[in-house]
């Protein structure tokens, strides 16, 4: 059976991602949020010409090596000198302090000697030296950051320096996580050998939060059609932007998610794709309202769920917040450290180690076991080695492509 290519599924998903509305947040709650409006500087910085060093403010023409100047005052950060540097005089100055009128250079204190009020210059001054010009960083009204930008630690300093206390950002997408399967129990609850711990909940919630979502744990549904339908119905009515289900996505007798979603009015635009791991992936939206929540059905196998979340959920959450997400997969170049077999129709994302580098490219070796239920080697992997559909066998030293496990 021909399966939908990964990039086609991704394009359908991103096309459905209309951005959420904006809200204002104070700067100390803005980390990781995505700007919904540009940030404009509300002040010019520095606000005046200031010294970049501790030393003496001078008129360069008076301050050749061995000239002696008379000290007439001090300019410290926050406490400017009120007077003027007249010929033959100097003002003690500190880093960040306003340059006094009349001065046009700074001589650093290491290049002077001082006896009382007499300051002798030992290195000739140069006009403009060690002076930060007013507006050298940015000026009032300047656009500092554009909409769609995700705020990093350094952006917060810039915004604060621009005297902006509050920013307009995309509301956090509300994401509900619905786990399914009779076998699932939570960690610490004394799972028997026949049971499985609901590990996906933790990796998916973490990935979603890292991508800016507010995550709601909607619990674990049993493998029962009526209960699955009821759980899905409640989730669809819970005011979510995105509903993520895990498990029950395949074709077994207990795989109820696709029929339950369809019965509850979700139109599945994607169901089964050419991806390993992650073939049973589903994507859809409620047929009636045609809007929210977007529904992403992930396979139950933990590695499949994680890989699908990296490929689909993270870009979807970014797009919902107005980030300009690239239309396709962002693969990076690498080199093979050993031979790999020919691939079949599914794009293959193999857990791999980086074992060195060659010509500036990481040297990558797939881990020997690729079973999509195995989490220990997902934690051990450095990257995912990507094999395109029908890629021929390749040898050590050949170019390859990788997909990051972290941003
Ligand atoms: N005859 C076929 N069988 C299977 C196919 C197929 O095409 N034909 N596809 C296989 C592929 S590929 C995958 S992936 C799995 C996915 O199946 P489901 O999405 O239906 O997942 P489940 O059967 O519910 O669970 C699979 C596995 O994962 C465990 N699980 C489920 N939920 C969680 C969770 N939240 N955290 C941790 N582990 C979870 C579950 O206990 C099972 O062990 O189907 C193949 N079969
Ligand atoms: O595609 Mo499944 O996701 O092989 O494990």
UniProtKB/TrEMBL annotation:
It is an enzyme of class 2 (transferase). Pathway: Cofactor biosynthesis; molybdopterin biosynthesis. Residues 176-319 form the MoaB/Mog domain. It holds the Pfam family MoCF_biosynth. Its EC number is 2.10.1.1. CDD domains: MoeA (cd00887). Its cofactor is Mg(2+). Keywords: Magnesium, Metal-binding, Molybdenum, Molybdenum cofactor biosynthesis, Transferase. It catalyses: adenylyl-molybdopterin + molybdate = Mo-molybdopterin + AMP + H(+). Belongs to the MoeA family. Catalyzes the insertion of molybdate into adenylated molybdopterin with the concomitant release of AMP. NCBIfam families: Glp_gephyrin. This is Molybdopterin molybdenumtransferase.
